[in-house]
Amino acid sequence: MFLMDILISMILIILLIICVLVGVA
Question: Which pLDDT does position 8 carry in this prediction?
Fold first, then answer.
């Protein structure tokens, strides 16, 4: 269960970074 929370958090952070990069580009 703990690993799933970490995995979801990592995915959300990656999506946020992608959105920022797309917004800057």
Answer: 98
Residue 23 corresponds to which tokens in the numbers above?
A: 């917004």
- Give me the domain span that covers residue 19: 1-25
Total domains present in the chain: 1
- Whether the full predicted model's pTM is greater than 0.70, yes or no, is no
Instruction: Please give the C-alpha separations between residue 11 and each of 7, 19, 24, in angstroms, as whole numbers.
Output: 6, 12, 20
Distance in angstroms (rounded) separating the CA atoms of residues 13 and 7: 10
Rounded CA gap, 20 and 7, in Å? 20
